[in-house]
Amino acid sequence: MNRPTSLLREPQPASAAPRVNVEFGAVLAVLLATGWVANHFVALMPAISDRQHLSTATLDAIFGIYAVGLLPGLLLGGRASDALGRRAVALTGSATAAAGTVAMLLSQQPDVLTVGRLTVGIGVGLTMSSGTAWASDLKGPAGAATAGAVLIVGFAVGPFAGGLITGAGEPGVQMSFAVAAVLVLAAMTVAVLATRRSPTAVADESRGPAQETASRQGITRALSWALPLAPWVFASATLGFVTIPARVHTGLAAPVAAGLAALTVNGASGVIQIIARAANWGPRAGTTGAVLAALSYALIAVAPPTMTLAMSLPLLLILGCASGLSLREGLIDLEAAAPQHVRGTLTGVFYSVTYIGFGLPLLLTTGGSDVTMLVLGIMAILASVAAVSRTMRLRRDSHRQN
């Protein structure tokens, strides 16, 4: 389908390809560091809880307030990057996330952790929406999918490394915050150096009636395909690396166990995205993601309060695959239909809906077993509806071929 071309770069000559590749690599470095700094806190939660004597509900609230900052960051970051350029907004977001991380490095008191996580959320939101749109501008559908996969790698490796660092000794919590901050600052430096001669891309708001109509149609189409997959991205991930580890006794130190759970879930998410691309699964991979989400929620709903390792590992893998496929296909759906001049805004909207799932652990913790079963049962039904409706729609509208 034809899309408005009212933004950004003119078609790049062949001689510009090396520069574009360098810039794309810099964007991926920023997104990798963003995933790391966003999620390494998961592995620090048990150690911080023990040290500060925090209740589970308090710690989950500190974890979840990240989403309160993240949601406006995603929406504002996407829209601002459409108007001001991807690079400026992505680097501003990275600097904000680094500032929040440094605050938590200096103090792990509950109020500082709350403000720090909120600040990190704002920064990560700005960077995710603008950075993903930036990658899409540079490389099209492959750029959008790769951006999502690299974020997931950061989400996976950050908690795993944080768990290892925290489990190594007394100053491990501070060391993990320090490593995260240094990585973000290093990625920012790489991005500045790689893009110092690149033009700043801004939107051209002058469009005629025909372009406006096509733009509105593209927006509606993009969101109608992508948003039904969005809720299952981080609802699945957080069930895997927050809720399930609390119900499994492994004999490992709590930070290491949390880090391994995050590595397993997000590792499965990244691997399944690679498989989907290599095998050319196409848009039906999104249906598979929703089906796997429904299956995993139903299984967790009926699982006993205390799980064995043999029971939990398959659930972690299924949750990771559900998260990865939903993320990949949602981002590609957006790239396939979204007008380029609002791509950042729509990316922010998509990510905002995905992050609603970050509130799930707190809801399940405070609700009790009956509420847990009810909530997960409803989620399983909704994910099933999303899978069925996508299947039916694909039969009459191919949408995209890969």
From TrEMBL:
Residues in Major facilitator superfamily (MFS) profile domain copies: 19-395
- PROSITE patterns according to UniProt: MFS (PS50850), SUGAR_TRANSPORT_1 (PS00216)
| Keyword Transmembrane helix carried by entry | yes
Where it sits in the cell: the answer is:
Cell membrane
- Which domain of life, per UniProt? Bacteria
Q: How does this protein lie in the membrane?
A: Multi-pass membrane protein
Please verify whether the record's keywords include Membrane. Answer: yes
What SUPFAM superfamilies does the record point to?
Answer: MFS general substrate transporter
* InterPro entries named in the record: MFS (IPR011701), MFS_dom (IPR020846), MFS_trans_sf (IPR036259), MFS_Transporters (IPR050171), Sugar_transporter_CS (IPR005829)
State a single Gene Ontology molecular function. Answer: transmembrane transporter activity
Give the keywords, sorted. Answer: Cell membrane, Membrane, Transmembrane, Transmembrane helix, Transport
Listed GO cellular component terms?
A: plasma membrane
| Residues passing through the membrane, by range | 20-42, 54-76, 88-106, 118-135, 147-169, 175-194, 225-246, 252-276, 285-303, 309-327, 348-365, 371-392
- Protein name (record): Permease
